[in-house]
Structure formats: structure tokens, C-alpha cells
Write a structure and sequence with these properties.
By secondary structure, the chain is mainly alpha-helical. It is 62% helix and 6% strand.
Length: 336
Amino acid sequence: MTGHRYSVAKHSLISTTCQHNYWCSSSAWSQPAVFTFVSKTNERVTETPLITRHIIRVSHKNHSSKEQPSPSSAFRVGLISGAFAGAIVDFVLFPLDTLKTRLQVRQGVVWSSQLFHGIYRGLGPAVAASAPAGAAFFGTYDFTKRITSRWLSEPYQVLGHMISAIAGDVAGSTVRVPFEVIKQNLQAGIFSSSRQAVYHIMKRQGIAGLYRGWLSLILREIPFDIIEFPLYEYLKKRWRRDDGAPLETWKSATCGCIAGAVAAALTTPLDVAKTRVMLQGTQDIPYRGIAYTLLRIAKEEGVNCLFSGMIPRVLWIGLGGAIFFGSFETCKQWME
């Protein structure tokens, strides 16, 4: 029986990992055959000159069919991954957040050793909020992104990321605001404990006092996330390997760091206004809304004051973005 040798990877689109040699008995050469390949670009390439009685299909090993998770599954994965990543960031980088708040809370604050006193004051509310707020944001973000990706073509995916970020902001901010109000009052040294802060705020302003600054927080978060998340997704896409495999953790972390730092710098004035609005109840400063607050600060204290705390904010969110997105993607890949 004479053997005839041929290659199944003649086409240039076929990955080298699919280049195997096959042998066929001469007695099998009785009818034309169709060789069907799946290339790196997922295109089907057909070669017909070869003859055999069987159809052989060769698929690239990294292109095995994998079902996309459903929106409900994406929500669950995002929920747990966001909670995990948020808790890590808030615990590790809390001192930078405290410095930022103390620099923003009033005019004329200068760098001194006093700024570092009680640097972890307010950590309890922050940690308590990070898991549920992060879970609410990323669960909603991933859920919305799955839906928009089905309806929007590739050139408009960035719009889907923006819509997803806005939806996540509304959900996450609703959970975070009461904790944020208590945390910032402790960071600024206005109250000495969470219990004292809650008691006095509820006594003076009722439940609405715990939600003071909710709109300001959302109006800060939406521009921030509209900048951060499309930039993060863009950087990931540009850095993704040709074979489509997920990025290594350090690459996801680097993308998150760059995106977070850029967004933090550009939205610092909104963060200053949000801080003033949240803390005005105990300082008797008549701030009414974020636009009025921005104009008032610029007029009374100068435009430079709108960028108070920018350095610790950029460091906090830049490093936080690296830790957060690295942890988030790692947890997400593990769960999926």
C-alpha cells in the first residue's frame, strides 16, 4: 500500500500550530474531498485540490467555541469582582483619600504634619461601603455592557461603554453616598466617630442629611467614568494579544492606572465641589449645587483652589486603578 503525503496548512491564514502532515493510503483516493479550516481571523478557508474520502476540519486551538455569558451571569460576576476589588483599594490607599479631602475642605490648608494626624480616620465607613458600592457599580456596568454590545456595532461600542458607566454610577452612588458623607466628616475632623456623625447628621437634617451631595457625587462620577472606562477599554483592546487571549494581570493594572490618573486629573474641580457640598451642613457654607459651588469657589478663592488635592487624588486613583482593575479582571477571569 503506497502512502501519499500532503500538508493541511497551505493557506497563509492558517496558524502554524495547525500545520500537520497527514498520510493517506492510495486506495482511499477515490473521490474529491473538501478541506475546511478555521483561521486566526475565524474565516473558513477551503482547499479542494486534495483527494480523500473524509472531511477533515482543523481549528486553531485558541478559537474553540466559547459561549458568551448571559447578562444575568455577567451581572453576578461583575457584582462579586467589583466588591472584591473595591475592598482592596479602599483599604490600601485610604491615606491618600484622607489627604485629598483635608486639602479640599477649606481654603488655605497647607502641607504639614497635622495633615497626617489620624490618617485612617473614616476607614470603617469606607470599607463598609466599598464592597456593596463596587458590586452595585460593576454588576450594573457589566450587565448593561452585555446588552449594549448586542445592539451596537463595533464603531459605536464606546457609546455602549459610556452608557454602561452612567448606569453603574447611578447604582453605585446610591449605595455609597451615606457612607461617603460619614467618612468625609470623620476625615475632616468634624466628628470623632461614625456613631457621633450619624447621630448629629440625623438630628439636624434627618435622613436627607445622609444623602447630601448625592447629585454632586453622580455629577462627578459620570464625567469621571465617561473618561476612564472608554479609555480603559481602548487601552486593553490596543494591548490585547493577537490571539485574543485575556491580558495578563499587570497589563490590565497598567491600563487601569493610566485611565484612572487621566480621569482623576480632569475631574478634580468636580471633586472639590462635591466635598464642599457634602460637608457644608456643619460649616454653614451656603453652597447650592455643583455649578454654583464651582463658580463660588473660583470667585472667592481663585481658580487654583478648584484643583486642591489634585496630586493625592491622582496618586490615589491612579494606583487604585492599577490595583482595582488588576484585581477585578483577575477575579472575573477566575469566575468565568
